[in-house]
Design brief:
By secondary structure, this protein is α/β, with parallel strands linked by helices. It folds into 2 domains: 163 residues, D-Maltodextrin-Binding Protein, domain 2 (3-Layer(aba) Sandwich); 96 residues, Periplasmic binding protein-like II (D-Maltodextrin-Binding Protein, domain 2), CATH 3.40.190.10. Helix content is 44%, strand content 18%. Helix 2 packs across helix 9 and helix 6 crosses helix 11. The longest helix has 26 residues.
Length: 327
């Protein structure tokens, strides 16, 4: 006769053994299972890097794993963008800026990724207005004087950008078209070196994000002539907008956000979005960013995807109208 009590006990024993084996496997599947990497396409010290490092501290706390910033400057952030597009480890992300949406306008035939479809946009962190800032080499004190000097001696004024096809490059060329002036473009690998050359007098001007030059403007070492936003910024209430100064229709706000490779899992995506939302809800983070001239703004998921897609289309049209091409 079959002892069913013994058989059942045996089954229960096997089930318990199976669960004990499965538990480590489930634990290994928990995300994140190792340090998380935030790749930045610019050198340390610039606004993209500042945003990444500010968030990394919060994310380390939220995720229970170290969150590391990995700077890969060069080629207008293409090196960093390609590295993240090809990442398959589920722990590598891109801290991107507006210039990412400009890559197709100049480089699409030369890059091995799609600026939109190779990624899952997670959330924006902040937005920042663009300002026309001049350094020690420029004797002009107003936008009118700047334009007058540029018209009197075409291409004599140099302006720096974070690379060919960057947001600051497009901002400079768009201004030149609207204001009817020609300047000489000088591409850099990041904003920190632009600021250094402005301070040192080797560079005349830049169409920079406010966050990258705010501290030097407040100290009087650099001069901001105008801000490319619909209204004045609370950090610099005395600085007029381009619209106020007779340059209508000129606006150039920049965003900074987090993007993942297209193959990212829903678990990782949700965890990072939750961390961003939590961080930007913190009064400490809000005050920190505002002090840097950055306005916290979490545009997430499909809304961020739409923003990126629309930006790509707009900059392709702008590049064609301005005749901009990658060198």
């Amino acid at each position: 006769m079959i002892d069913f009590t013994t058989v059942i006990r045996g089954w229960l024993g096997l089930l318990a053994l199976g669960l004990s084996v499965a538990q480590p496997v489930l634990a290994q599947a928990t995300w994140p299972s190792k340090p998380v990497k935030l790749v930045v396409g610019f050198s340390a010290g610039g606004p993209t890097d500042i945003v990444a490092r500010a968030f990394a501290e919060q994310a380390t706390h939220d995720l229970g794993q170290p969150v590391i910033v990995d700077n890969k400057p060069g080629a207008n952030s293409i090196i960093a963008a390609e590295a993240v597009a090809n990442a398959t480890d589920q722990h590598t992300f891109l801290v991107a800026a507006t210039n990412h949406s400009m890559i197709p306008a100049l480089y699409q035939s030369r890059v091995k990724f799609d600026a939109v479809n190779s990624y899952k946009p997670i959330c924006t962190f902040v937005v920042s207005p663009t300002v026309l800032v001049i350094g020690a080499s420029m004797p002009t004190k107003t936008l009118a004087q700047f334009i007058q000097k540029a018209k009197a001696a075409p291409e004599s004024i140099t302006y720096g950008s974070s690379g060919i096809g960057s947001s600051s490059h497009f901002a400079g060329e768009a201004f030149g078209q609207i204001a009817g002036v020609k300047m000489t473009h000088v591409p850099y690998k990041g904003s920190s070196q632009i600021v250094a050359d402005l301070l040192g007098g080797q560079l005349d001007a830049s169409f920079a994000t406010l966050g990258s030059v705010l501290s030097h403007a407040k100290s009087g070492k650099l001069t901001i002539l105008a801000i490319a936003s619909p209204k004045r910024h609370p950090q610099l209430p005395a600085v007029p907008t381009f619209e106020e100064l007779g340059v209508p229709g000129y606006s150039a706000d920049a965003w900074y956000g987090l993007m993942a490779p297209s193959g990212i899992t829903a678990t990782a995506l949700q965890a990072m979005e939750k961390s961003i939302q939590s961080y930007l809800a913190s009064p400490v983070a809000v005050e920190k960013f505002k002090a840097l001239g950055l306005d916290p703004q979490a545009t997430c998921g499909q809304a961020f995807q739409k923003l990126l897609t629309n930006d790509v289309k707009s900059y392709v049209r702008l590049a064609q109208s301005l005749g901009l091409k990658a060198e």
